[in-house]
User: Fold this.
Amino acid sequence: MGEDSVIVTEISDKPNDMDIELIPPGCTVLGTAAVTNINGGIGPYTYSINGSIFQSVNIFQSLTSGNYTISIMDANGCEYEKQLEIPVAPILTVELPVIITIEYNVGEQLFPELNIPVQNISSVSWNPTTGLSCSDCLNPIANPLEETLYSVFVTDVTGCTAKAYIKILALKDFDLYVPNAFSPNDDGVNDRWMIYGDPKIVSKIRRLQIFDRWGEGLFEASNFQVNDPNFAWDGVFRNRNLQNSVFVYYFEAEFVDGRTQIYKGDINLMR
Assistant:
């Protein structure tokens, strides 16, 4: 009987690690797992999930939440497996204050709170769009001229959606400062009578009239801005300085929201 010897060499270069890139499932899409960065072994590699037949494609699709075993096999038939846990898709939430008050015609930026990273947001839609610096961004500047109820509708990359509401009140302080006296004596102090206000709120003075006690018109101006000294009254009528007396003013103011208001009162002229 003859004898022979066989040298068995153990393969030392076996697959020993791999990365699994996961796109988790969402509300309208299923998950996807891709095997990358295999360490060890000799290619080409084949791939299997949960004991399925090995395939040449390194991507597994239509995955739901749960536990999986990902296996790879190299050209020598050496295998390596790794566990994968796919979490349940989180319910997308977006939150806003129920109500806020802002200064009239002064914008305020909105900051919805999300339970997912901003980079996972696919789209944002605000309604109505009036008074917003943008309607498809996450943090618009809101500047409504009237009380407005806004809604924001957010969609993430997995198709999950969420909605929130915020009511914004525009604090309207439309008071104008109308002096009740002036002293046109050219001393540099209170020499002119004029209408004062916030130009961000007051669009214009449509018409101003000043009368004496008998109803004679002494001064008139139309379509001018508040705080404009070019439309101030210097106490002169027909090139004559009027003496101490009480006069009557009447004017109509127009505000940036389109509303108008009539103002009337007395002016004390004191030289």
User: Anything to note?
Assistant: The chain has a mean pLDDT of 91.
